[in-house]
Amino acid sequence: MRRAIIYSLMTLSLLTNLHAKEGLNPVEIMKEALSKMEAVAKRGSDVNISNTDTSTFTLGKYGTFKFEKANDNVYIMHGPVVGPNKENEGFMNNPAVIESEHGLIVIDPGGNYNVGKKVLAQIEKVSTKPIIAVFNTHKHGDHWFANKAIVEKYPKVDIYAHEHMIKVSKEGEADVWYGILNRATKGNLKGTKEFAFPTKPLVDGDSIEVDGQKFVVGHPKVAHTDTDLLITHINSNTLFLADNLMKGRLGSFDDSSSIFGNIELLEQIKKDTNYTLYVPGHGISGKKDETIDPFLNYLKVLVEEGQKAYDDDKESYEIEDKVLKKLEWMRDWDAFERNVPAHLNKAMLEIGERELESEDEE
Ligand SMILES: [Zn+2]
Fold this sequence. Notes:
The chain is an alpha/beta fold.
């Protein structure tokens, strides 16, 4: 028998029956949100440099960033769809704000203390209500290091993350990511230490209610990493997929990742859920298929082509050109040339491991 990669996606399946949301016209909301998001995505070279509003969050050629209503009481700031660099100051994720009656709940505020202060200023434009809770989706610092700016202003705020995320971050992952991001941004991580680690550990299936806003979290054992938290905001019918989903950009997989796990997770989500809005860790949010399919199809090509190469006794570099050609449709995704070969290599390593394990078990 093959090694069983089991993901406890029970949570997501359970939620399928809870989706029906009353008093909402999802089509209209989505249309409005999508047209705004397209506008954000196209921004870049046509920046309005005459803007003298000092509270504007502008990052050179990447343009100006602010929170926009994405769904019901959910606001998202879609960051630049590129890796961390000096010009974007290490800001490239999708912070989200959920407005409750008395406060704000923030998901993944960003990649360092300085960015956090700027994101916080934009959050205050959504509402001046206090931040009453924060969620962090996984261990990668580009998503959570900005907790520091929030904790500075709200020292008692609850910060939720998967229990394993908190453990490994404290055991050294945070330092690794500090180094990565500090180098990539040429030193913009100043003020980020001491890290503002999450304080409230969660496990798969937990539900949390904050000021009338209900969240249910899911944890695939291993997908983008082994620390991922998928967050469903029940009130707005929104699913936050963290970096298990990217659009327009290829991030990296590390030792704690599984391409097979990522594929299984996305297929399960496609099959079992029907949310109004799907939010990737990087790239523009949208409806289910249009948001999930490009990345899922990409991962499937890696595995299919990787398996053929494995069967033909070929190394990943020997099929690189063929695979790049097959993926021509996504050539404009950030880090395409660099990360496709790396991901293909990773896929083949996983294929090799699985083949060995299935031989052992026969
Ligand atoms: Zn990540």
